[in-house]
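An instance noted here:
***
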Amino acid sequence: MSVIDNVISQNPEGVLVIDNQKTIEIEDEKFKIYELLRHPKYEPILNALKEGPLTVEELEDKYNKIAKSPKSAKTLYRYLKFLEKAGLVMNAGQQLLKDQNATRVLYSRTASIFYPSHVPEDLWECDFCQRVLEGAARIVSLKEGLPKQTKESIKKVMSDVDQHIFDELSDIFEKNSEEVSEILRNSSSYETSRINHVAGILLLLLNPSIYEKEVKEIFKK
């Protein structure tokens, strides 16, 4: 089939803030919408759509080049409908086919960048997170001259740091959505997460005195 033109009727937003407590049911399984950004089935779709609107047929080719498990166009259409229901994907227009009285739907992301609405209260409550905190506390405690740390003391500091970083990045994203979208346009969800992590740490270091008292308090003998 020869393509004569792509007619775009909707363009993605720059940054979309997602309620990271909102859930969606997919095939009798419940997910937090934000979890879909890193789900092995759906992340390749969102990464492929970063390049611009695609038909299901075009997406099939790109998806199967980047995903560990290839999928058929029929399966990907079902995934797109799930993501559309979740508010992460939308019908962006139509692709006109040459010499045929036919069109194909173009799908795109609803935004170039997805960002959580707030820092989850249970961010450090999962079993994995508890192991991370415990391991970090034990390693820090090996530093000569420092008292033994607990995962509770490390959790308190990290929760406050996470909130500060979130507030800083949220402010930047809100005021510079187009510029941020351009910077992160070709980054995968993992790369975007790492970029935001590094940027957040650098922003924190611009004003380290914020947590100086708290850090000294938990590390004093």
Q: What stands out?
A: DSSP finds eight helices and seven strands in the chain.
